[in-house]
Amino acid sequence: MTEIKTLSLFAITAVAEILGCYLPWLWLKQGASVWLLLPAALSLVAFVWLLTLHPSASGRIYAAYGGVYISVALIWLWLVDGVRPSGWDMAGVAVCLLGVGLIAFQPRS
């Protein structure tokens, strides 16, 4: 159960980070309202706070989080941008998630 909670927290953290970066992109590149910067800032604050909820050393958390971020970013690419990930993308995600598992769930003494 701990693994599911950890991966879920990583996924929520990734969505907060991506949203915090996507909203300014909409403003700068798509001409959306400048008011999108407010929820973007709040989303980035949530992202930072969520990273602090993990009990392990920060470096290990950031390393494992990176693999989950890549996975969530490709899901975002598909669902929000409408671009279906390639087979190569999916293979890369599999490699990243294997790395996440090795880093985050290694035996600890």
Question: What order do the helices and strands come in, and which of them pair?
Answer:
Elements: H1 2-30, H2 37-51, H3 58-79, H4 87-104
Helix pairs in contact: 1-2, 1-3, 3-4
Task: Tell me what you see in this structure.
With 109 residues, this protein is mainly α. It has one domain (2-104). It is built from four helices and no strands. It has helices spanning 2-30, 37-51, 58-79, 87-104. Helix 1 (2-30) packs antiparallel against helix 2 (37-51). It is flat and about 50 Å long. The mean pLDDT is 92.
Summary?
This protein is an all-alpha fold and 109 residues long.
Alpha-beta classification: mainly alpha
Helix % is over 70%
Largest sheet: none
How many β-strand runs?
0
Strand content: under 5%
Query: Low-confidence parts lasting 5 or more residues at pLDDT below 50?
Result: none
Give the terminus-to-terminus CA distance. 19 Å
List descriptors.
mainly alpha; flat
